[in-house]
Design brief:
Protein name: Alpha/beta hydrolase
CATH architecture: 3-Layer(aba) Sandwich
GO molecular function: hydrolase activity
Number of helices: 11
Pfam families: Abhydrolase_1
Keywords: Hydrolase
Strand content: 15-25%
Low-confidence stretches: 170-178
Organism: Streptomyces thermogriseus
Number of domains: 1
């Protein structure tokens, strides 16, 4: 594994930690959940053979600190952070962007708001549940997660969220590090530390975000929507497949499930390489 160049970037209300590897056109990788830049350790070196690969911890996660730790989080502000990184690392040149889960929501928003800065977006299972016909049901899920977190704490709220995302409503919150490759398991402590922020700030702010569908239709030739081979029926997969059908675009399948990036890094990275070039 190559040691990346590490930097910090001051943005509105936060200081971002970012890492850069490789040479070539810029590829910005936006993590989902509580992964941070480290979630891309399994694929970044391979991608750096063809791209300048930039990874970062989103505001409030891991090493990217907030001025106000209690601040509400919004997709537009996270997208502006990503644009600030593009301006620093690739000024004036459109970049390729990959996002996973909540990071994919940010990537899609970037495409619709400043398409001149984005050459291609690959979005893996963005939980854009507002596009679904039963969106009201999922808004109610977000409200239950938030109330459970407030009244019962983190793990009960995680269980409510996991059940709502699953195929049959019967999932429970996973144990950190269970069944993961060693490098991913080693990140479990940091992941657990970020979970309260994710459940309390990211889930409410992101899962109620509605994309600009008319703009996406006009820009669909630059958008690749991808799902996990093993996540059919789960809520993020449903939302992504519905969006692909709505836009009339082909849905790509990547190995593993919603966290295939973590469980199948080599095969996932190979699929991403292909999606960036096709």
């Amino acid at each position: 594994m190559t040691d990346p160049a590490v930097g910090t970037l001051r943005v509105n209300g936060a200081t971002l930690h970012y890492e850069v590897r490789g040479r070539g056109p810029l590829l910005l990788l936006i993590p989902g959940g509580t992964g941070g830049a480290a979630s891309f350790d399994g694929i970044a070196d391979d991608l750096a053979g063809a791209y300048t690969v930039a990874t970062y911890d989103p505001r409030g996660m891991s090493r990217s600190t907030l001025d106000d730790p209690e601040a509400e989080q919004h997709v537009a502000e996270h997208a502006e952070d990503a644009f600030r990184l593009l301006d620093r690392l690739s000024p004036g040149e459109p970049a390729r962007v990959f996002g996973a889960s909540s990071g994919a929501i940010v990537a899609v928003h970037m495409l619709t708001t400043r398409p001149e800065r984005v050459a291609r977006v690959v979005a893996h299972e963005p939980p854009l549940v507002e596009v679904l016909p039963d969106a009201a049901e999922h808004r109610a899920l977000v409200a239950r997660v938030r109330e459970t977190f407030r009244t019962q704490g983190l793990m009960p709220a995680m269980a409510v969220l996991a059940a709502g995302l699953s195929k049959d409503g019967g999932a429970t919150a996973p144990e950190a590090g269970t069944g993961l490759p060693p490098r991913a398991a080693a990140r479990a402590e940091r992941t657990m530390a970020d979970l309260p922020y994710f459940v309390g700030r990211i889930v409410p702010g992101f899962m109620t975000h509605a994309p600009d569908l008319s703009r996406l239709e006009a820009l669909s030739d630059r958008l690749v929507l991808a799902c996990g081979e093993d996540s059919r029926g789960e809520l993020p997969h449903r939302a992504t497949a519905f969006l692909a059908e709505r836009l009339g675009t082909k849905l790509r399948y990547f190995p593993g499930g919603h966290i295939g990036l973590t469980t199948h890094p080599a095969a996932f990275g190979a699929c991403l390489q292909k999606a960036l070039c096709d």
